Amino acid sequence: MATESIGWWGVPLAIAAGTIRGSAPFLFVSLGECLTEKSGKINLGLEGTLLMGAMSAYAISYLSSSNGIPTWLAPWLGVFTAGVAGMLLGTIHGWLSQQPKVNDVAVGIAMIIFGSGIAFFFGKAFIQPVAPQLPAFELGNWSDIPSIKAALKISPLFLIGVAIAPIMQWFFKSTRWGLYIRAVGDSPEAAKAMGISVYKVRMFSIIAGSFLAGIGGAYLSLYYPGSWSERISSGQGLMAVALVIFARWNPVQCLYAALLFGGAQAIGPALQSVGVNSYYYLFNASPYIFTLAIMIITCSPKRTLSGSPGALGTEN
Amino acid sequence: MIFTEKWRTTLEKICIPIAALAVSLVIFGVFCAAAGANPFAVYASIYKAAFGSWFSFQNTLIRAAPLMLASLCTALPARLGLVIIGNEGAIVIGGLSAVAAGLSVQGAGPFVVQLAMALAGIVSGGVWIAAVGALRHYRGVNETISSLLLNYIAIALLNHMVGGPMRDPTSLNKPSSYPIPDADMLGNIPGTRVHFGLIYGIIACLIAYFLIQRTTFGFAARTVGGNIRAAKIAGLPVGKLTLIICFLAGSCAGLAGMVEVAAVHGRANESLNASYGYSSILVAFIARQNPVAAVFVSIILGGILASGGILQRAHQLPDATVLVFQGIVFLVILFSESLYGRLAIFKEGVKPQMPGQNLKPQT
Amino acid sequence: MSTRHPLHLNRRQIIRGILATTAFGVSSRLWTGCTPNTPPSATTPATPTNSASTGAVKPITMGFIYVGPKDDYGYNQAHALGKEGVSKLPWVKTVEQANVPETTEVQEAMRNMIEQDGATVLFPTSFGYFDPHILKLAQEYPEVQFFHCGGLYVDGKHPKNVGSYYGYIDEAQYIAGIVAAHTTKTGKLGFVAAKPIPQLIRNINSFTLGARSVNPKITTQVIFTGDWSLPVKEAEAANSMIDQGVDVLTCHVDSPKVVMETAEKRGVFCSGYHANQAILAPKGYITGAEWDWTNVYSRYAEMIRDGKTLMNGGISHLVRGGLKDGFCKLSNYGSVVGEAAKKDADAAKAKFIDGSMVIYKGELKDNTGKTVVASAKEYKQEDPELEKMNWLVEGVLGSATS
Lengths: 316, 363, 402
Fold this sequence. Notes:
The complex is a heterotrimer of chains A (about 325), B (about 375) and C (about 400).
Chain A: H1 10-22, H2 24-38, H3 46-66, H4 74-96, H5 104-123, E1 137-138, H6 146-151, E2 153-154, H7 156-174, H8 176-186, H9 188-193, H10 198-222, H11 236-246, H12 251-273, H13 280-284, H14 286-298
Antiparallel strand pairs in A: 1-2
Chain B: H1 7-34, H2 39-50, H3 54-78, H4 87-104, H5 110-139, H6 143-163, H7 197-214, H8 216-226, H9 228-233, H10 238-265, H11 276-286, H12 291-306, H13 308-315, H14 321-337
Helix pairs in contact in B: 1-2, 1-14, 2-12, 2-13, 3-4, 3-7, 3-10, 3-11, 3-12, 4-5, 4-6, 4-10, 4-11, 5-6, 5-10, 7-8, 7-12, 8-10, 11-12
Chain C: H1 5-24, E1 60-65, H2 75-86, E2 92-97, H3 104-115, E3 121-124, H4 130-140, E4 145-149, E5 162-167, H5 170-183, E6 188-193, H6 198-214, E7 219-224, H7 231-243, E8 248-252, H8 257-265, E9 269-274, E10 285-291, H9 293-305, E11 318-321, E12 328-330, H10 339-354, E13 360-361, E14 364-365, E15 371-373, E16 378-379, E17 396-397
Parallel strand pairs in C: 1-2, 1-3, 3-4, 4-5, 5-11, 6-7, 6-8, 7-17, 8-9, 9-10
Antiparallel strand pairs in C: 10-12, 13-16, 14-15
Helix pairs in contact in C: 2-9, 3-4, 5-6, 5-10, 7-8
């Protein structure tokens, strides 16, 4: 049916392009969640953080560019603000979820409601305006085929995310702070005995994790799809929580998993564009089915998952 | 059982939630003032819209009804120490299979149809969450995450079924299943506009409370939740308990889905996915997993949701205001959890510790 | 957050103001002297009864309910702007509520508007509000009039105080198809769609038929995202079609913003939907199919002021209209649109206005080769058969099953 275009070759290309375009939010949120969970707390509220990041990035990018800040700088101010907004929400979560008898899953869900509420409330004014977008590296200029050119447009933010993954891995493995976080996550009692403040380490991890999630939101509104609307995240923040488990709390595997999830988003539309039309709801659900299947296959009741923080899901 | 405690503890249980509500109202008032609305007028409107008259209180009850049933989906497994957030999926699956069952026994009289629908909702919702429990017990799969994933899968399944195999071709612009005839629908409680889901919810919560607090089965479950290793050593059938509790939990949410289709929509379509599931998780946590408390928390949340409309209509606040309000209330109430036993004024000389009183799962 | 607040309010007001004036400021005159388009099947006695004097009328309270946020650049915004427009009439009072899901919540919203705000006319605008919610409330409040966007009123089956209205926006899509056909270089058009429902399928078909009236070799690729608002999927659908060589995109989703912006970024052309999106794609925007609800709502308000109601037969239960009746309109042509395209499009528009244009006339085949409209058969716009459309016309790549 596709005569002179790239036809069926479009499917792998679309998935590859979709992976490069669409996986960064997953990557940032899952790295943030990974950091948080390594310290033994879960933060389901990153969905709200993602929305808050998307809104504040877009708002600041728009406001600063219309107040005379050059358009190359404005989106980066937005990215920074998104991170800060994430940190603010993270502070609430970090403080509240560490109070005695307070469950972190419950706080997370309350934070989804609160974060998205605040984002929607203040975001109303910014749905209409057009904000300056983040630039991209055009790595596909060697090719004459426009679709390859477009596929190889890569956002610097995505590259930063890709770089953070191994750095975080190294951080956990080889630095003193990484050791602290792992100790707090695996056995808070032992950490306390070592003289580490469990509260402070978790606070740091949650705030830093929320910072990353906020940046993920900035990517959504300032690069791809590149606009602010209330449905912009469509559950990606919650999905990233599952993704961390899929990645076994390993930052580099978070990167692979994020790429996989980002690519999976493109499968449904890509197949339809070459004429495979049925079952698109089920195609759209493929990442979830896939994650569940992998979890069932790889988990075992005999041992806890390798890499799983021992204190995760327990009361403080 | 509340009466066996000393009065100070009772007072604490009453004062802390009320104080938390008051504080969250103050914070929300400040927020409204910053947004340019008169906070006192807003309070008056909220009261008027949620509890001010029998007319508006029914609005609150209508919203509370699905939350009660669905909150048990989180509250029951919490006794085993499991955090399950698959409520939305169980509601959707329950509703979908209730419609399928109702349509297949069509014409057999309202009672048979409703019974078939209820059974289908209960069984399918139950199996859906029991699967989560089974995965947890036999494969060690994290129940929070697997139930979250199952939500998305359930919604995709719903969309697929009503858009394809189960679609009524005359449901033109909103793909839906064939309708349940009006005669077979679940009615309203006489004299009100509140459907029977409210009664089901209250009954289910009472049964759940009795089951957990007053039976050996419930005691066994709480023991597993307290210390799984000790329970195993004591010879408790942990696997069986997990499956049964998860089944019961899911069946409550499945029943909520059945009520949604049998009392409100009359057919299965995307409206079934109305995020009652996520609200009900919070209800369960705020009720500290106590089914009776869940009834009251549902009503409070119902009241908050019921006031969402008037904030828009009377105060020109954006629609997201009710989300902010909800978020503030929940965060403050969650914080207030940590105050139990920490305020000197409520301290007794000796704290009574009976097994049934420890409402929080120990994990 | 609150420090940013004063600015936020100002901006919002400015934006609202600009949009209201540019998009709808001039529209209220369009309907004067124009009768509602009444299909033959729903003819009602047209004699107005008890026409009240227009001098001292007590304000009519109209309630509007939207399923999503009301500034989404799309469906809900179009209605909200219609509400803004009608609220400028001095004898109309309006209340509105946004983000109301299609559950008991909408029943409660309607009930509160009636009981607490004294609304006597309701416009619940989402399709899914109709059955069972509006039907139920209409029985309870027989003196309140419910006007529903998109529903199909069936005489005898539905309560007398329910009416439905909808616009033949596919007429605008047909013309957009003509413009698209002149603009495309590859001969491939793309349509990002939400769900395969008749209203949407009709837009796809009319767009394609319009394009093929210029060049019968043109194809329209359609991708269904599965839901009304999935920004990432919409962007992905747009991108993958552009990769397949599509160079003019249009859509039918709740908020076309993402599709327009993606098209602009990728340097292809786009045609808008619901509202004017020209500022989102200054280079590639060719035209767009827009609603004009201010017009429709003002017209209803005038009829009600004059004492006409659904119940006394003064207002038709089924109100439909297209370009001629001002239910919809076209965005101004973009700078890339050539003279030939403008000429063809204007000619088609003139034929719609004088009523001589019939989009669906035989012989028409669907994209599986089956004849769906026999030769010599004509479906006029108001034919109810068209509101059940479940086939994609020849030239559409895609399938209407889920």
